[in-house]
Design goal:
Elements lengths: L10 H8 L4 E3 L15 E3 H23 L8 H20 L3 H23 L7 H12 L14 H34 L9 H40 L7 H44 L3
Antiparallel strand pairs: 1-2
Helix pairs in contact: 1-7, 2-4, 3-4, 4-8, 6-7, 6-8, 7-8
Length: 290
């Protein structure tokens, strides 16, 4: 991260470095990032952290289920039971098909826990894992770029929202039948008349596209903005000195970091809850006939 002259990076260089992903192409070779969207490569760091946190989330839920007792629950079991009851109550109010809830309720719980864990990576010190990788990555033949918040990556959040879209399509066909769903695509929202069939179909496609894109973009936008704020706060702590300016920036770094971290706990939880609720709402709409 240091410049060629030997001094530390400027503020813009620091942020630009931290916004680069460890990227691979499909031949598993190092590549340089080209914009936010590049379909020729995949963000290896987001993929690894997403899988790792997904495994951890599933393990925690499995652990709670395997250790559950009918007596007085421990704190961990009580916390998981509160989450399960919360998700189940939300699912009952949106999805009235009890058979569908057997799959959708656990799915929504998994989504909530998984996204919360991915969001929570933002709570780690900005340079903690990237600094470790900065030393280890080049020695292993990788570049030293590393981002640790998967949900601050647009490909991750859009991948999640596209998965929800596929589930919605599945339930549309399962509940209404392929013919019933196809008829709904051309008969709603403006009525079952041949003259408006093309308009109806176009509106349905726009609705599916808008819901999917907004579902992923909402999570990405909030987490990306939160990541940037942490980077700016980290920059304040990078100019520590015995001067009045240095002392002021150090104090500001500690105060701002503490306040933003406490506020961000609410943000990461709220964003996980919103994504889970929209998953329930969209799958619930797949059960309803227009």
């Amino acid at each position: 991260m240091s410049s060629e002259q030997g001094h530390g990076p400027s503020a813009s260089e620091y942020i630009q470095h931290h916004l680069h992903h460890l990227q691979k192409n499909f031949n598993f070779e190092n590549v340089e990032q080209h914009g936010i969207v590049d379909f020729s490569v995949f963000n290896f760091d987001s993929l690894v952290y997403s899988i790792l946190l997904g495994v951890i989330g599933c393990f925690l839920l499995w652990r709670a289920a395997s250790k559950a007792t009918s007596g007085v629950p421990g704190r961990f079991q009580a916390a998981v039971e509160i989450m399960v009851e919360m998700v189940e109550n939300q699912a009952k109010g949106i999805i009235h098909n009890a058979q569908s809830r057997k799959l959708i309720s656990p799915l929504a719980l998994t989504v909530f826990v998984w996204i919360f864990l991915m969001n929570a990576m933002d709570m780690l010190p900005v340079d903690f894992l990237p600094l470790i990788w900065h030393s280890a990555g080049p020695a292993l033949g990788f570049n030293d770029y590393m981002r640790v918040v998967p949900t601050a990556d647009l490909s991750t959040t859009l991948g999640l929202s596209c998965s929800v879209l596929l589930i919605c399509l599945f339930y549309n066909i399962k509940i209404k039948g392929l013919g019933g769903w196809a008829h709904e695509l051309i008969a709603a929202p403006f009525g079952d008349h041949w003259a408006v069939y093309p308009i109806n179909f176009l509106m349905q496609m726009i609705e599916y596209l808008a819901k999917t894109v907004s579902h992923g973009m909402r999570l990405f936008g909030n987490m990306f903005a939160g990541e940037l704020v942490f980077m700016l706060i980290a920059l304040m702590g990078g100019y520590m000195s015995l001067s009045a300016t240095g002392i002021g920036l150090t104090i500001g770094h500690l105060v701002a970091g503490t306040v933003w971290t406490l506020f961000h706990i609410l943000v990461i939880t709220l964003q996980a809850f919103i994504f889970m609720m929209l998953t329930l709402i969209y799958t619930g709409q797949a059960h309803d006939a227009h």
